[in-house]
Amino acid sequence: MSILSINDGPFLTMIAMGAAGLADFPLMALLAAILPMLLGFILGNGSERARDFLAPGERLIIPFAAFALGAGIDFTVLAGSGAIGIALGLATVIFSGGAAVLSLYAWHRARRHPAPTRNVISGVCEASTAGNAIATPLAVATIDPTLMPVQGVATAQVAAAVVTTAFTAPFLVAYISRWQQRRGITPKNEEAFYETGQVPTAPITQPET
Question: What keywords would UniProt list here (predicted)?
Answer without folding.
Answer: Cell membrane, Membrane, Sugar transport, Symport, Transmembrane, Transmembrane helix, Transport
